[in-house]
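Hi! If you just cloned this repository, the fastest way to understand the data is to look at a raw example. We've pasted two of them here, unedited. The first protein comes first, obviously.
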Amino acid sequence: MPGHQARLEFERILFGIRALFLPRATLPVPTFLTTASAAGRSERLVVLLPGRGSRARHFDRHRFAAIAREQRLAADILAVDLHFGYYLKADPLVRLRLDVLDPSRAAGYSEIHLVGISVGAAAALGLAHDNPGRIAGLLLMGPYLGSETMVEEIAAAGLARWTPDAASLGEFDPFFARNWEFLRRSARQRSAPPILLAFGESDRYAAGQRLLAEALPRDRVFTAPGRHDWTTWSKLWETILSRGAFPAAARRDPAETIEAAP
């Protein structure tokens, strides 16, 4: 497929150019904790992973912790500055395990949930795949689930019957193919961590998102008018928490307050 190969080559060149202008992938990955209560840490932790063009500060800018405060979410929140430099200059899944998952377990968190936006949702899936039994639940917001070619192949074959075609995989596609296989298994296994999906109806990656929605129970899929942007995601975050649909959505006593940890 000459057209497909040309597109893959263009994508490689584009990624190479972008890599020159990305922030440094410092070690460890910076993280920012907000505790659920002034009395101390919760036993639950919600880890927030940003998308390609975003940083941890965007979660604060778009009120993710404030919305959790208003909805009395009984979980601490950890925003991770896993910007796109880590995807091109480091191994993001190794960094998440060493810098986020392992230290959080050591700090006493017995229940860890992942919220990933766009490419951050792909990282959340990869981390859950590599660490079975250590992730309590996932919320995928506007997820990027792989190339248009891969999504079309899965749609044509049906997720239950699809097998990756090595000849058509681009440089980054094997990672996303593994995520789809994890999603397929998780949809069938009761013991798998629950997966929630949320996206804007005009999201530019909606084809893959709707394909995933077909494999999930209806009560785990949330949509809203909007695009692939923070306005849509913050609106969906508030909706999901207000409905008590998030697996970590047990409520605090309303008299408690949330404050940032030092």
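Ok, and the second one:
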Amino acid sequence: MATLGTNAVTLMDVARRTIDKKIATVIELLHDTNEILQDIMWMPCNDGDNHVVSIRTGLPSVSWKRFNYGVAQSKSQTQTVKEATGMLRAYSKVDVDLAEKNGNAAQFRASEDVAFLEAMNQELSSTLFYGNTNTTPEKFNGFSMRYVTPSTDNTKIGYNMVNGGGSGSTNTSIWLVAWGDQTAFGLYPESERAGFDMKDMGVQMFEDSNGLLNKYYVTEYTWRCGLCVKDWRHVVRICNIDVSTLTDAGESTFDGPAILHLMIKALRKRPASLLGRPVFYMNNDILTALDLISNFDNRLSLKVEEVDGKPITSFRGIPVRRCDALLNTESAVSGF
């Protein structure tokens, strides 16, 4: 498997390098509560809050050389794309009297901020897959906005879409994403610490639900981030998986979509170069189905192992992550 470029780092790498221990602690907490952050690589933008990248859409032609004959000139086909970043922000409010009553106001504030950080995590995960700047211009475009029209042409992005066979609007998707600086990576604005910032806004007065004033400690969290798919061949969408067919038919068989077959098809969509670090993403319903399949037949290439006290699923050596941001209400994609 190819190694990652040296310019791409995880959010945990940023946490270890930052001189601000408070921000490092928050980033570690974000990492621990979001499996995607264990995988996604981050790169600074090359144009302020935007990232301009040249995406190859076709290979150059080559020729066999004969003596005394020339060779036709050729060049690769590319397309210049500007990827945008969005600003995700949250404010936490902690009652001053309650925080100080516990003896360690700073520690109490941090414990209360967990819910806000979890909300930011969920929103980031959702935007990574469903972000649409046409309807919400303040966000960035996610994977689903790119892999939306199937194609049999292997030079088009729609070629990397696999049909799960479902119809209607009770579908979900499985994503195979190879993270790396030459494949797909997260973005943060130029000259910023992975786009994440935390500010202690001190004590502020707010009205309670009865219109009465009360003092609160306020913390501002800001996360400036985006997504770049530099080489679409290293990302595959398995769509049209009808979750209503995920039924357990008994202790020795599993009745439902051929999930493993679909995952093999996705793996075969990737080019031979196999750049980046591949990871499968699916919601808990699909992951549960996979666990049931592995329980019925341990000869499969699906493994569930315990690492640091947590069950880790992998398929053919590729991690399988749970991502509850992936919905069960996707409308079926037509055009296959």
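That's it. A detail worth noticing about the second one: Residues 1-6 have pLDDT under 50 and may be disordered.
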